[in-house]
Request: fold
Amino acid sequence: MQFSQISTEDVLKIFKETGALLEGHFLLTSGLHSSKYFQCAKVLQYPEYAELLCRQIARHFYTSEIELVVSPAIGGIIVGYEVARQLEARNIFAEREGGVMKLRRGFGIKPGERVLVCEDVVTTGGSVFEVIDLVKNAGGKLIGVGCIVDRSGGKIDFGTRFASVIKLEVPTFKPEECPLCKEGIEIEKPGSRGIY
Reply:
């Protein structure tokens, strides 16, 4: 399988072309505010881009003998599926029930199974940390974490190998410190779930 690397500029070009890089005033899932929002779903609606971007994650783990890829719903589902397809691994996803991340639908992790956790966008890593806990509690062997966009600029430590397609340090603000709020700019919540 060919694993050529794609540049940050090319990834951002794809995001802009598909309308997936939004600018304005956004409320992130973490509760933080930001002037930029990466709506990966708008990129992943194009299978050729999903394949291309997920190949960048898969190449980091191609020799790691991944047996299972687990993702948090909803954003990580397509990413996890496509990475698993390319690594010829099994794929499942975790979802929230009563605000708690769980494995449902009969999904399970086998003790000792070599697991990669995949997500679309990581800001604080909250959902990924929850999935990592599920993996460890089930006795799975965490091999790494992969995502398309790392908004932390590489600052998050998942305690395992972490690979992203692009790393960007995009400023985020606590609501009480947000300059966009102070300017009176209307806030949007484009994500797939509510706020903590």
Observations:
- Strands lie at 21-27, 33-38, 68-72, 90-97, 100-103, 114-122, 141-150, 161-167, 172-173.
- The radius of gyration is 16 Å.
- Residues 47-170 form a domain with the Rossmann fold fold (CATH 3.40.50.2020).
